[in-house]
């Protein structure tokens, strides 16, 4: 596995719609492994392929309960209930903002074996799913955020 370079806001790939993964290959699985290693090394909770300069619909995430890998994910239903929470992004280091998201969603995706899987995350995990899926459509959290602020250490 390898730690990949996380690109930052301003890179064109972050504003594009990522391409669906046509077939799950050894290269796809290696990229998922490298993305997970990169996410953990950066102490993030999610990472989408465009953030490592790959225009592919791949996401890895972990809210502390174990790694989830998503290939070609799509949100198929949402709750009516919304909630506001603080978000940051590995591609926009040092910035945080309040973003309104659906409290609960249902997502359909493929796993690394090509099997269709469904997730029904709520709360913080639903927020991570939505944030990362936004990356696949060229949307950054700062476009949705209120109270955007820079945090310096």
From TrEMBL:
The active site is at 132. GO terms for molecular function: metal ion binding; peptide deformylase activity. Fe cation binds at residues 89, 131, 135. GO terms for biological process: translation. Its cofactor is Fe(2+). Binds 1 Fe(2+) ion. Its EC number is 3.5.1.88. It catalyses: N-terminal N-formyl-L-methionyl-[peptide] + H2O = N-terminal L-methionyl-[peptide] + formate. It is an enzyme of class 3 (hydrolase). Keywords: Hydrolase, Iron, Metal-binding, Protein biosynthesis. Belongs to the polypeptide deformylase family. HAMAP family: Pep_deformylase (MF_00163). Removes the formyl group from the N-terminal Met of newly synthesized proteins. Requires at least a dipeptide for an efficient rate of reaction. N-terminal L-methionine is a prerequisite for activity but the enzyme has broad specificity at other positions. This is Peptide deformylase. It comes from Megasphaera cerevisiae DSM 20462.
